[in-house]
Amino acid sequence: PDILRKNVGVVLQDVFLFSGSVADNVTLRNPAIKKEDVVKAAELIGMHDFIMRLPGNYDYHVMERGATLSLGQRQLLSFVRALLYDPAILILDEATSSVDTESEALIQHAIEKLIANRTSIIIAHRLSTIRKANKIIVLDRGEIKEIGTHDELLEKKGFYYQLHKMQFEKQEKVA
Fold this sequence. Notes:
The chain is about 50% helix and about 15% strand. The chain is of the alpha/beta class. The strands form 3 sheets. It has a 3-stranded parallel β-sheet.
């Protein structure tokens, strides 16, 4: 169990933040983690400038459940946390589902940084989240419908293609 905990990181849809500083929420109050490492991880994810604008910067007091932060900001803090702990395997479970489209571009960039050079399992309904995956497994009610890259699945004009078409037509109508 310890080896799994050290090598597997999970970022969930609903981010858990506790009452305490930004730094404490990212390090989980682990005294072995240096502030420079927190700053490096925040810079890589794209959160450093935002944190520096907060009153108190990394010492800014986050309310329980992150009440003073937007959903996107909470999610990005959880990405900084995951990057800091540097797991060999990363599981992102609907990590972008509750994020507004304005924060989505920043989060997509953060995901690219987070999944680089590690095995990542991304569970998502938003197809933009998985677009660059090496392999996409399309499930419907627990059944595998298709497997391939984004381009291969679009070319097949099957189940994934229909999902993609529906999702992006809906976005175009909203814009």
